[in-house]
Each structure stands twice: as structure tokens, then as C-alpha cells.
Write a structure and sequence with these properties.
Blueprint: H1 2-19, E1 45-51, E2 57-63, E3 68-75, E4 82-83, E5 88-89, E6 110-111, E7 117-127, E8 133-143, E9 149-153, E10 165-171, E11 177-183, E12 189-195, E13 214-219, E14 245-251, E15 260-266, E16 276-283, H2 287-291, E17 304-310, E18 316-322, E19 332-337, E20 344-345, E21 355-361, E22 364-371, E23 374-381, E24 394-400, E25 405-407, E26 413-417, E27 433-437
Antiparallel strand pairs: 1-2, 2-3, 3-4, 3-5, 6-7, 7-8, 8-9, 10-11, 11-12, 13-14, 14-15, 15-16, 17-18, 18-19, 19-20, 21-22, 22-23, 23-24, 25-26, 26-27
């Protein structure tokens, strides 16, 4: 009798303990996206403005403090911005950075050559066997005529590589290819090329390098060889002219070896075994001899190339070169022939850096130069490489607030984000963007960047 009572009491105590939470505990569940501090509703910041090729529209993203981005399109005067898509969470644990003041390719949206499609990033979730989840990004397009969205470059359901973040899309001049950067969680970067007619995506074969480190894709302007050189942009889409993509590649054989910077070109669809050609190579040990930049002996040189762009006649390249990617005042602008020969610095030394070069025409370069918390808009002469060596004169056009900007293709205007602060919905201005008029002479333009 006593044993029966004892068993009953033990069972009752066990039930009470279970009800009190002393049984087996479940693993805690954490939200995929931790909540941010509460913010007043409606505040925003407009970023990443991009001109359409015909200059009639400006696409941009509206950013809110809760990490969401929303695609907008406005008229050329920024008077009638219209939301194209709902606000979406895009990059919850990595900053979406569209500023040109970067050592690697910025995030961006991109108009197709016919101004119908806009390529943009969208979040993709990766779930591992243990249940952990990682937010990456894929590329989609928005059709401005039908309002449809379609995947451009997304990851497979059982993705086994480590390039989880697709960003920095850029269209080929004929619209047949989309180049972009794939990035890993530890900063590995590789160039991908997606064919728009259903073929598999393409990327340069890996070299014997310790790290994958490629970015800054830029398409060559298509032009027929019979055309003579002039100061005008040339129309693309000429039949029989292959697409050529240039990009930066960093080479480091092992963690302790000195790095080297390369510019390579790739022609998708060309049946050549040696399709990834080296154009320029700059090593750490040769940087001083190449640049003539007299650096203190205790300064560690780690050269970096960026912001590569083809001249309108496709004969030359402009790019930035710096001994220290994290010091903006050391960035200098260089011009070379398309094969890498005749490289020369066109920006003057003196402690002022120059970033984000664009071709005004075949003999002038536009750029930004830091000026306190703002940026001077300047032009530099880019004479032929067989002319007298030495830096060119700098011509000041004005000043803008940020390096988050885009030149119209006729180079007469720059649209830019005004500041890094969020704006109140009570503000009378329809957007946080501004237009800067360069005062440059209008020229006929092509539909390539």
C-alpha cells in the first residue's frame, strides 16, 4: 500500500516538474533579421540614382531605416517620382553601398540598352543542413512596360559555392549579356557573365591564386574599325563586332606573397582557348617605378586598380590606381591604350585624390575629387599617349554632396544623393536627389556606360 502511494506521489511530482518547465528544453529560436530600434514612420533616403540612356528618366532606390529598398522612376527633372515595386528587404546584415567612393564595385541598379529593363538586387535565403540561414542576393529585372519582374541571375536550390551575393550588374551594349560580381562572406569576388538567351552563365576560369578577387566589370563601346577618330560618342550595335568585357583582378599566390593588380579582358561567345587576356599588370614592388610616386620607406604598398571604363572610340581605358585602397587622397587617374600600352597618369599629385572617372569625350575625363565632406566635380585632359607625358590640368566644374551619383550620357548633368541623413515625409521636395548641371557641351551619345 505504501509503495503504491509512493509511486503515485512520484508521478505527481514529475508531472508538476514538467509543467513548471523542468523537462527537456527546446533550442532557442532567433529571428533571421533582428529588429532595429523604432523609427518615425515615413522617413527615407534616396540613393543609387541612374539615368536612362535617352536621358528622359532617372531610376533610383528609396531606402528606409528598417533596411528596406524600393525601386522608383522619376522624370528627368525629379518632379514626379513613382514607385515601381513594393519596399523589400534586400541586404539585412550587409550594408547596401552605392557610393563610388569604394575600393571594390559598388551596389547598383542598371538600365538595359533599350531602356526597357532595370536590373536590381533581391534577397535570397540559403538554408543549411543544421537549419542555419544566410541572406544572400540574386539579380532580377523590372520591365518598365509590362511591370513584370523576372529572375536574371539567381542561385540554384543546392548551391555549393561561396559567392552568395550577386551585385554590380552591367549590360553589354547589345543587351545580349549581363556581367556582374559574385561575392562571398569573406570578401571573395568573381566576375560572372550571364547570357540573356538562355545559355548558362559564364565566368573566367580560376587562376592559381590564394584568393578570388575580381571586380569592376566594364563593357567596351562597340564601334566599326572603319570609323575615324573624333570627339563624339559612337553608336553601338554594329553587326560582327564582338562584346569585350574588361575587369580588375587581384593576384596573390599565397597569404604572404606581395599582391599584383591586373586588368583583363573577356569576350563572351568567342571560341578562343585564351579568351581571358591580360592588359595591365602592376606589382607592389614596381609601383614606385611605374607611378613615380615618392612614398616614405615605411609605407606598405598594396596597389589597387578600380573604376575601369572604355573610351567612346574603344581605343583606350581609364582607371584609378592607388597604393592604399583605404586612403581616398591617394587615388590617381590613369589612361592607357586598350592593349595596356602607353599607360600614364593624368591626374596631378599633391595629396588630393581623384575617383570615379568617366569619359566626357575621347580627349577629356570627368572625375570626383574629395573636398572635406563634399566632392569637387572636375575634368582632366586625356591627350593621346604619344603626346608629351605628365599630368593634365584640372578644370573645376562645381561641387556635389556625395559620390553616390551618375552622369547623364551627354555629360551635361549629374544626378546625386544629397546626404547620408534620412528625410522627413513632411519635406516639400519629392525626392532626396539633386541635379548638377556641368556646363559641358552637349554631344551625341551611345547607349553604353
Amino acid at each position: 500500500m505504501h509503495s503504491v502511494k509512493l509511486q503515485y506521489i512520484c508521478g505527481l511530482l514529475a508531472a508538476l516538474l514538467c509543467c513548471a518547465g523542468c523537462g527537456q528544453k527546446k533550442a532557442p529560436r532567433y529571428p533571421d533579421v533582428p529588429a532595429l530600434p523604432s523609427q518615425p514612420a515615413g522617413i527615407y533616403r534616396d540613393i543609387n540614382p541612374r539615368w536612362s540612356h535617352d536621358g528622359s528618366r532617372i531610376a533610383f532606390l528609396r531606402s528606409t531605416p528598417n533596411r528596406k529598398l524600393q525601386l522608383f522612376i522619376s522624370d528627368r527633372e525629379l518632379e514626379r517620382p513613382i514607385a515601381m515595386l513594393d519596399a523589400e528587404l534586400v541586404s539585412p546584415d550587409r550594408p547596401y553601398s552605392s557610393d563610388a567612393n569604394r575600393y571594390c564595385s559598388p551596389d547598383t541598379i542598371a538600365w538595359s540598352p533599350d531602356d526597357r529593363l532595370i536590373a536590381f538586387e533581391r534577397i535570397e535565403w540559403f538554408t543549411y543542413e543544421d537549419g542555419d540561414r544566410l541572406p544572400g542576393t540574386g539579380l532580377w529585372d523590372y520591365d518598365t512596360i509590362t511591370g513584370d519582374t523576372r529572375p536574371l541571375a539567381t542561385h540554384t536550390s543546392h548551391y555549393t559555392s561561396y559567392f552568395y551575393f550577386y551585385h554590380a550588374p552591367t549590360w553589354s551594349p547589345d543587351g545580349r549579356y549581363l556581367a556582374f560580381v559574385g561575392e562571398g562572406v569573406n570578401g571573395q569576388r568573381r566576375i560572372f557573365v550571364h547570357a540573356m538567351k538562355g545559355q548558362a552563365q559564364i565566368f573566367p576560369s580560376s587562376r592559381f591564386d590564394y584568393y578570388d578577387d575580381s571586380d569592376w566589370p566594364s563593357w567596351r563601346v562597340i564601334r566599326p574599325d572603319s570609323l575615324t577618330d573624333n570627339d563624339d560618342f559612337l553608336d553601338p550595335g554594329v553587326a560582327g563586332i564582338p562584346n569585350v568585357l574588361s575587369f580588375r583582378q587581384g593576384v596573390r599566390r599565397n597569404a604572404m606573397a606581395p599582391p599584383a593588380e591586373l586588368i583583363r579582358t573577356l569576350s563572351p561567345g568567342t571560341p578562343s582557348a585564351d579568351n581571358c587576356r591580360k592588359v595591365t599588370r602592376v606589382t607592389a614592388t614596381a609601383y614606385t617605378q611605374i607611378t613615380g610616386d615618392s612614398l616614405p620607406t615605411n609605407v606598405h604598398v598594396s596597389p589597387r586598380i578600380g573604376s575601369i571604363s572604355w573610351s567612346p572610340d574603344s581605343r583606350r581605358l581609364v582607371y584609378t590606381l592607388t597604393p592604399s585602397a583605404h586612403e581616398i587622397n591617394r587615388y590617381q587617374i590613369w589612361v592607357s591604350e586598350a592593349d595596356g600600352s602607353g599607360a600614364r597618369r593624368i591626374s596631378p599629385l599633391g595629396g588630393t585624390g581623384y575617383i570615379a572617372p568617366v569619359w566626357i569625350d575621347n580627349r577629356r575625363i570627368g572625375a570626383l575629387s574629395p573636398n572635406g565632406d563634399h566632392y569637387n566635380v572636375v575634368t582632366l585632359d586625356a591627350p593621346d599617349t604619344d603626346s608629351a607625358p605628365g599630368p593634365s590640368n584640372v578644370h573645376l566644374l562645381g561641387r556635389i554632396d556625395t559620390a553616390d551619383c551618375d552622369w547623364s550620357l551627354d555629360r551635361t548633368k549629374i544626378v546625386y544623393a544629397v546626404s547620408s541623413k534620412f528625410r522627413s515625409p513632411e519635406n516639400d521636395d519629392p525626392t532626396g536627389l539633386q541635379i548638377f548641371h556641368t556646363g559641358l557641351r552637349r554631344r551625341r551619345v551611345s547607349n553604353v556606360r
